Amino acid sequence: MRKDKEKQQMMTHEDLDIWKLGIELVEKVYEMTAEFPKEEMYGLTNQMRRATVSIPSNISEGAARSSKKEFIKICQNIPAALLRGYSLNFYMWP
Hints:
The chain has five helices and no strands. It has helices spanning about 1-10, 15-35, 45-65, 70-75, 80-90.
């Protein structure tokens, strides 16, 4: 009975609301940066997209870890990625 209960409680990163929000943010940033000037494709556009993609990536990597402590440690990188993406936004719209 215990193993059945453990299987029911097993979740993946795709079950986490925060991961889903991260994916939505990635989609919005890709849509927004598609309108940036073409000369920014390998500069600002690329930096903003990579910073944003790192958010759900960190969440999925953390969820794959074997302990809650490891998950928390990896997810501590998320605020830095958000700030990177946010501060890069000011280069386009002062």
